[in-house]
Amino acid sequence: MRVLIPTIGVHPCLKLTLESYLLTSPLAPITVVVGGTNSDLSSYLESLQVECLPLDENLGFAGNVNVGLKAIDDDVVLISNDDVVVLTPGWDDLVKEHFKDESVAAVGATSNYVLSHQLYDTKGPEIEFVSCLSFFWIAVSRRAIDQVGLLDESFGLGLCEDLDWCVRAKQ
């Protein structure tokens, strides 16, 4: 499993995001797609041994994610926003466990800042099967990517391409 983080390289939380992945799952390889070349960011990522895929321009969320999905071939890809902080050590083992069931296309997380059924509930974690997941933090199997296809880049810089992908996955 590989972590894929699309960014334009200026988000103030990116450093914290990367540190949280490196602390909670130090063996999970990370690829950052930088939409719009940022040489300072490239050297920083190299110092962390994080793969950097620099682009000449920002292709938007879907375009930047698609560049990463085409460049890597892991069985499971975790797509993460550049402002996500992972708090649970061993999260990668939890995710891998779900993909033992071949009917599972994607696994998502809860957040304290999302307007959907993925809003964190203080009652504790529970497994819920849903028809749509927000792509702020989603693990997707390569099998599902191959069957459903990449994100639709016609949505522009970022809006509803995650919903579209989930609708296509459900069909």
How would you explain this protein's 3D organization?
By secondary structure, the chain is an alpha/beta fold. It is 33% helix and 18% strand. The chain is built from 6 helices and 6 strands, in the order E-H-E-H-E-H-E-H-E-E-H-H. It has helices at 14-24, 39-47, 60-71, 91-98, 142-148, 161-170, and strands at 2-7, 30-35, 51-55, 76-80, 106-108, 137-141. It has a 6-stranded mixed sheet with strand order 3-2-1-4-6-5, with helices on both faces. Strand 1 (2-7), helix 1 (14-24) and strand 2 form a beta-alpha-beta unit. The model has no long low-confidence stretch (mean pLDDT 85).
Could you provide a short overview of the structure?
The protein is of the alpha/beta class and 171 residues long.
Which key terms come to mind for this protein?
single chain, 171 residues, alpha/beta, six-stranded mixed sheet, 6 helices, 6 strands, 33% helix
